[in-house]
# Entry
Amino acid sequence: MRYLNSMTVTRPIRNLALIGFMGTGKSCVGRLAAETMHFTFLDTDHVIEARAGKSINDIFQQDGEPAFRDWERRIVEELTRRDKTVIATGGGLPVGERNLASLKTHALVVCLWASPETIWERVRAHDHRPLLNEGDPIAKIRELLAVREPYYRQADVLVNTEMRSLREVALQVLHQFHMAHATHR
Ligand code: S3P
# Structure
C-alpha cells in the first residue's frame, strides 16, 4: 500500500475520520487520538446501535444489511456538522455512495490497513461482526477486501498497522492530522 501525504490536502479540516477494514484498530486508535487532542470521539457503529436501540448483529439479522447501510448514510450526513471530532467508521462505510466524499468535506480521512491474516487474528475472538460469523472467515475477509480496496485507497493517508502498536499507529495518525490541520484549518 502507498503512503500519501496529508500536506497534499487542500480543503478545510475540522475533524479526523478513520476508515479501514474490521480489526484494523479504528476504534482504539481513534480513542487514543481523541484523548491526545482533546477532541470528541465518535464511533459510527455505536451511534447506530444507540439510535436503532439494538446491536449491529440484530440490525443485520432482523432488518438486513441494506437497512444498516441506510443508517450509515444518515449518520455520515449528520457528521458534516461536527467540529473537533475523531470519527471511527464501520469497515463497509466508505463503499456507500457519497459517504467518502461527504467525510472529505470536513475531515482528514485516514485509512488503517492490515493483511487478511492479521485481520483474522485480531477479530477471531469476537462475534459481534455479522459479516464474519458464517462460512470461511478468511475467504470472506479476502473477498470483502478486494471489493473495498479501491475505496480505502481514496483516503488522504494510508497507514499500515502491521507490526506496530496501536500507540505507534495513533502517533503516526496524529502527525498526519497536525500537518494537514495546520495548513488547512
Ligand atoms: C462492517 C464492519 C463493522 C460494522 C458492521 C459491518 C463491515 O464495523 O460496521 O459489522 O461491513 O465491514 P468495524 O469495522 O468497526 O468492525
